[in-house]
């Protein structure tokens, strides 16, 4: 089954510094991959998604992610973080349930991002 | 704005006392999901509805039930809450999977935080 791994549980970055959050996938074919963000006490918001084509995907809030097949990775990046980016970030992979005609999402364990002044 | 609404945002219940969480949506999506998210963990899918068809995850305890009286509303019933059921409960919706998977996305509500005393 498809799965994603987020190796970093917690990352601390200074405001204005660049950010990279790691996500590794386990899937033979080209996966579809998502990044979601969850602010404290809130639901999840989709940042961006990758299906095929261009390996560099642009998302909301200035985020981008790059799909690298050779490394089985889909890392999330931002050139300059803001204090409001402090949140939990989840990588996710959808998988199709053929007998149900629908998709489900499997999430990674998440990376908590702390921003220091 | 079209959205996913969860009520209440915070719910306190006593050990063993049944509780119902509510989710409504104005997106007119035919798929609705319920997730359980414990502290510092990824959301875990409990079950979902595709229209009126109910799909339970294999490891969802019998203590958790769901109802979907119409397209807009979905309820999560916990028949006898235990201390281990304290968590954030997230509702999400999506359109059914169509021919093009690139259209697939789940939209999340803000969640209900359940405390069991």
Descriptive account of the structure:
The complex is a heterodimer of chains A (117) and B (117). The mean pLDDT of chain A is 90. Chain A has no helices and twelve strands. In chain A, the strands form three sheets. In chain A, strands 2, 5, 6, 10, 11 and 12 form a six-stranded mixed sheet that branches. A four-stranded antiparallel sheet of chain A has the order 3-9-8-7, with no helix packed on it. In chain A, strands 1-4 form a two-stranded antiparallel ribbon. Chain A has one domain (3-116): Immunoglobulins (Immunoglobulin-like, Sandwich). Chain A has 117 residues and is mainly β. The radius of gyration of chain A is 14 Å and the shape is globular. Chain B has one domain: Immunoglobulin-like, CATH 2.60.40.10. In chain B, β7 and β8 form a beta hairpin. Chain B has strands at 4-7, 10-13, 19-25, 31-37, 44-50, 53-56, 64-67, 73-78, 87-94, 107-108, 112-116. In chain B, the strands form two sheets. In chain B, strands 2, 4, 5, 6, 9, 10 and 11 form a seven-stranded mixed sheet that branches. In chain B, 0% of the residues lie in helices and 50% in strands. With 117 residues, chain B is mostly beta strands. Chain B is built from no helices and eleven strands.
